[in-house]
């Protein structure tokens, strides 16, 4: 059996300083949906160390693996000795976030932006050595700009081009409005690139037209247009075609446990395995065919290897993922449950199953826990008998399984 | 003469009406029609007094036509001299009451307007959208900001405007605190 997981995890701690341009592009390309242009990127990497820009939205605080995909692209640049500029969009956040997802969002205070930034950076810092990157706040250069400076940049852009972008038209066709703020947003991003003299910008494919506006602004200012690398919008774990999002409850939180990450990867449909490998592992272009064949021929094994990679992504220690794999195989393949798989709960005599389990703090809400009861997901481990929410914890205690992955040992408190 | 008006209620006896004008060239005599028309409001709807406040934008033409400060200052001075003679009660240069460096404040208005609304605001005289630059957006947001600041600084409760500016003021009413507006046809 090919162990892609071990190969990719070993790669995560290799020293990549001095890697040649072709090799770097070979690792970047599988992670990107589009590069404009690959030739130019290769040429620049051949010439010098590059300044790579990534914009952070300080309104986002809960980072999930979908957000991590471009961060892993940045990590390749950082590991190969290029310079990464992280831009905290505090200027934009102060004006009010204009993305289509939150047109009504209230502008954030500087204190809230600072707090969000700290939370965000600590989460992405698990995947990118933030001490090796420069963190900028775009108020630093956007604030001091005069009306005349701003006018000059907007004057260099054709209005029809700015207002009638294809994504705006598409939203118009769907009956969704496009605010003027969204038009301004792309221009502000372009000013960031001008200020930093950006060589390469990384982001999601949904940013394509904003990036193109950045390129136009740079060209109008007499600079070389930045190269843009766009990662795909990662599909959620449920595999219903919707993007990974907290709103759709189909995400893997960066702050979740390794066991949770492993388990959630094991729940994805087989057709997502290959794409997730490309997004979360350091796969080289030349390995694509071999990996695809392996995934198609051995989806269950491939999924376990992918889950091993994802569970170890943060620590870069293969043992973490392998330990989760062992646990998974023991619990689900061999049906062997160890004592340390159980969360111990002590409750007052007479407590119901609902009260006892909710006290564990493992459930988002009582309503969420009730749904699990309704879905017959709560059973006794010993005899597999269904447990109802109002059943009282018996005198001798219970060993309870909730869903596939949670185990509780519930006993009466000793008075 | 006033061709149409939109009142905020309740109508207050003292109307302090702003009139915004770009100092792009020497002030024209027809500007006198604005204070004249405004004074005709006295006696209507329990209005007992009307003050007309000239808001002379000396910033936007300076930028738009790439003028020197001196060139702009000469033109602006003519407004300060002539508008009182045309029966404006007070006259202020925008540069004296709007902080140009706080431009992020006017970018906030961009959240309140859709691109399709904005396209309707563009005067036909400016040609088709293909002929225009994106700075039209900044001009629109800046102008909104100017009247907003003027309302606060000078206690304005309404504006006088040419009928061609109707769309702009209707849009402004959507984004700014309530104000009355009186439209004139000067042709």
Overview of the molecule:
The complex is a heterodimer of chains A (415) and B (187). Chain A has helices at 4-11, 21-28, 38-47, 65-79, 90-95, 110-124, 139-142, 147-155, 159-163, 166-173, 180-196, 208-220, 258-266, 273-280, 288-297, 299-312, 318-333, 353-358, 366-374; strands at residues 34-36, 51-56, 83-88, 134-137, 200-204, 227-231, 342-347, 378-380, 398-402, 406-412. Chain A is an alpha/beta fold and 415 residues long. Among the domains of chain A are: 33-231, HUPs (Rossmann fold, 3-Layer(aba) Sandwich), CATH 3.40.50.620; 339-412, Structural Genomics Hypothetical 15.5 Kd Protein In mrcA-pckA Intergenic Region, Chain A (Roll). In chain A, helix 4 (65-79) links the parallel strand 2 and strand 3. In chain A, helix 2 crosses helix 3 (38-47). The longest helix of chain A is centred in the middle third of the chain and has 17 residues, at 180-196. Mean pLDDT of chain A is 87; it is low at 100-104. Chain B is α/β, with parallel strands linked by helices and 187 residues long. Chain B is built from 7 helices and 6 strands; from the N terminus they run ββαβααβαααβαβ. Chain B has a 6-stranded mixed beta sheet with strand order 1-6-5-2-3-4, sandwiched between helices. In chain B, strand 2 (14-22), helix 1 (33-39) and strand 3 form a beta-alpha-beta unit. Chain B is globular and about 45 Å long. Chain B starts with a strand and ends with a strand. The chains are: A alpha/beta (415), B alpha/beta (187). At the A-B interface, helix 5, helix 8, helix 9 and helix 11 of A face helix 4, helix 5 and helix 6 of B.
């Amino acid at each position: 059996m090919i162990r892609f997981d071990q190969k990719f995890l070993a790669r995560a701690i290799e020293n990549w300083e001095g890697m040649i341009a072709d090799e770097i592009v070979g690792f970047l390309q599988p992670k990107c949906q589009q590069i404009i242009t690959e030739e130019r990127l290769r040429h620049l990497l051949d010439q010098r160390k590059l300044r790579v820009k990534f914009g952070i939205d300080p309104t986002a605080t809960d980072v999930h693996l979908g957000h991590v995909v471009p961060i892993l692209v940045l990590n390749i640049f950082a590991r190969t000795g290029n310079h990464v500029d992280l831009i905290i969009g505090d200027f934009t956040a102060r004006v009010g976030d204009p993305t289509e997802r939150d047109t009504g969002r209230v502008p954030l205070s500087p204190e809230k932006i600072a707090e969000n930034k700290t939370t965000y950076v600590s989460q992405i810092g698990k995947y990118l050595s933030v001490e090796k990157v420069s963190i900028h706040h775009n108020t630093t250069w956007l604030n001091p700009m005069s009306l005349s400076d701003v006018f000059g940049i907007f004057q260099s852009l054709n209005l029809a081009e700015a207002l009638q972008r294809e994504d705006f038209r598409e939203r118009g066709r769907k009956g969704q409005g496009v605010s003027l703020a969204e038009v301004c947003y792309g221009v502000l991003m372009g000013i960031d690139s001008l200020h930093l003299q950006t060589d390469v910008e990384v982001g999601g494919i949904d940013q394509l037209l904003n990036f193109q506006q950045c390129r136009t602004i740079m060209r109008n200012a007499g600079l070389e247009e930045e190269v843009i690398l766009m990662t795909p919008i990662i599909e959620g774990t449920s595999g219903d075609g919707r993007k990974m999002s907290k709103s759709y409850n189909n995400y893997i939180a960066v702050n979740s446990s390794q066991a949770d990450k492993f388990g959630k990867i094991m729940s994805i449909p087989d057709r997502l395995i290959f794409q997730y490998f490309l997004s979360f592992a350091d796969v080289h272009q030349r390995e694509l065919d071999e990996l695809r064949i392996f995934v198609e021929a051995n989806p269950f094994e491939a999924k376990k290897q992918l889950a091993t990679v994802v569970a170890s992504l943060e620590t870069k220690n293969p043992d973490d993922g392998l330990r989760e794999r062992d646990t998974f195989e023991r619990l689900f393949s061999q049906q062997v449950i160890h004592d340390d798989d159980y969360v111990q709960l002590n409750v007052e005599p007479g407590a119901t199953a609902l009260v006892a389990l909710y006290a564990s703090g493992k459930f988002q809400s009582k309503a969420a826990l009730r749904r699990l009861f309704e879905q017959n997901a709560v059973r006794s481990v010993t005899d597999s008998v269904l447990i109802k929410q109002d059943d009282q914890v018996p005198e001798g205690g219970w060993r309870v399984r909730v869903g596939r992955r949670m185990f509780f040992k519930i006993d009466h408190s000793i008075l | 003469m006033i061709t149409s008006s939109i009142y905020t209620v309740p109508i207050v006896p003292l109307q302090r009406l702003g009139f915004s004008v770009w100092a792009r060239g020497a002030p024209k005599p027809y500007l006198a029609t604005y204070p004249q028309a405004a004074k005709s409001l006295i006696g209507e709807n329990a209005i007992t007094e009307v003050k007309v406040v000239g808001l002379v934008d000396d910033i936007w033409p300076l930028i738009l036509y790439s003028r020197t400060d001196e060139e702009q200052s000469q033109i602006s001075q003519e407004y300060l001299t002539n508008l009182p003679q045309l029966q404006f009660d007070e006259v202020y240069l925008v540069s004296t009451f709007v902080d140009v460096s706080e431009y992020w404040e006017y970018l906030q208005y961009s959240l309140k307007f859709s691109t399709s609304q904005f396209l309707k605001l563009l005067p036909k005289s400016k040609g088709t959208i293909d002929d225009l630059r994106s700075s039209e957006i900044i001009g629109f947001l800046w102008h909104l900001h100017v009247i907003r600041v003027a309302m606060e600084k000078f206690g304005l409760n309404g504006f006088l405007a040419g009928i061609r500016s109707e769309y702009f003021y209707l849009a402004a009413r959507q984004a700014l605190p309530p104000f009355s507006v009186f439209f004139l046809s000067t042709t």
